[in-house]
């Protein structure tokens, strides 16, 4: 078969445009497409030029010049006009510019190429209102680049379908879209566009052996193009009534193939006739491949999100029934990457004694293994606590459990370097008596709790602690006891809440303290911002931005670590959880701290605790005096006795007129006495300092031991009138 016969069979004409001689040679099909008798002919350039729209003629000159410069094909879409200036059809020209040297030595070229009709505007449209088409090849490439980028950014099946519906294909636009999925031997509609709600009903649960184009595409993996309603009725008479009511005239059904497996079918339906030329089929096939990849990615992402949500719900407990006189709120925010699960957790455990325990912890790592270890450790801690063990015993047993668990993992995973690496966990265990507010705290390498007092002052509450769980199997965890007074709120959190955003422990605590203090309403004002749930949201928002406690939010890039936070409030005046006080009274600001003989480094913590307690004291010099006297009193106990020092500091009264009382108790009966140290003496000045700096001081004997105390009255500084 001759080449001319093949081209004629596919309605493609040949032409040769000699720019030097100004003549154009057309075969029969090319002449027909230009509105001339269907026979070979050689015409002057002006006769052919009159058949093209003037705008398209000007544009093709630029396209040809570019093809000559680049050595590529010249592709253009041209509108063919009749003698009345109306568009007859749109054709696509593909030609190769060939350089030719004329007799006078000048360089010229001739175009040799094909011309083929494409489905473009409807016949009868005036040339003045027909849009300019431009270079088909470049517009197609630009469209595919834009489509690929948009589909790659879609994160869910719904987004993929919205992107597919918004694609504006070059030269032809589908009016209706549908994506079919396969489940077993059934075909169902995953999503559609351009149809009314409920239109998908007949196609929702269709057997794959149904005489329907999408079903055949899934069975065979080959695309089906139906250019006219007659084609549809002839090939699929059984299901033609289902498609007839949508008033479409052309359809394309393409397989959605990923990794050699047909996962569904894509339908593009047109209200304008589409001839489905080779280029149009190429565009549709490419879009179908990108659509299949995007749907697979979206399905994997949705499965991961579902798995993440399930893991979080199964691992994060409910806070249980309400506790009379107390309120509890908690939040968990995973990291932004991967499955969004990690090693942070919290728990509330009812105890046999009628008390309850709050637990918060952090297993090293942000991966699936950390989440698995966290789940096992949480169950172990709950089991030990439910047996009635004291806080120190619960953490000791949990440490042995985690060490044994990691040792078993190492021996069973010789080829997995990650599984061989040991893991540890930090943990804070608080046993609470709801009747008295007494808290017993055991800490394993975890950040200390913070307490917001009734007047809004926030203190870090130093507690005794031991090594993180799992490092040394047999480790002791000392217990610290203190009382949560009515109206006070305690915050437990993991280090993700403190250090996210480039903060260290100090600056992170300062950020959280500002949120806790700003949330406090004026005592008795009844402002709802003091509610515990709102406060939990404010703490998370201070790190991640609005709404981050339940979604990734706009600042997901700051999710550097998991976050767990638990708030415990003992209802009372000023906490915001209960009924406001009608006649408010300035609450007592009080803190208590034990400094053991074996922990002299905690003297620095006592100084910091006093400074935080008196953060708004009017006279900075008085505050320095208080810190100096506290340091001297606690040091004397550790140096001159064999027992621990118990520090109690209490501020009473209105701001600017408060009375501060500080007591340091010990178990020794030996009373302090005034000494006269020399210039080089390193001790002996405690009593002298209190005589000089305190407004009052004294020593009170107790049943066992004594209490040394001093009082200081706040002196509001008056403005300098000099």
TrEMBL record:
Pfam families: GAF_2, HATPase_c_2, SpoIIE. Keywords: Hydrolase. SMART domains: GAF, PP2C_SIG. InterPro entries: Bact_Sigma-Reg, GAF, GAF-like_dom_sf, HATPase_C_sf, HATPase_dom, PAS, PPM-type-like_dom_sf, PPM-type_phosphatase-like_dom. It comes from the Bacteria. Residues 1-71 form the PAS domain. PANTHER family: STAGE II SPORULATION PROTEIN E (PTHR43156:SF2), STAGE II SPORULATION PROTEIN E-RELATED (PTHR43156). This is SpoIIE family protein phosphatase. It comes from Streptomyces erythrochromogenes.
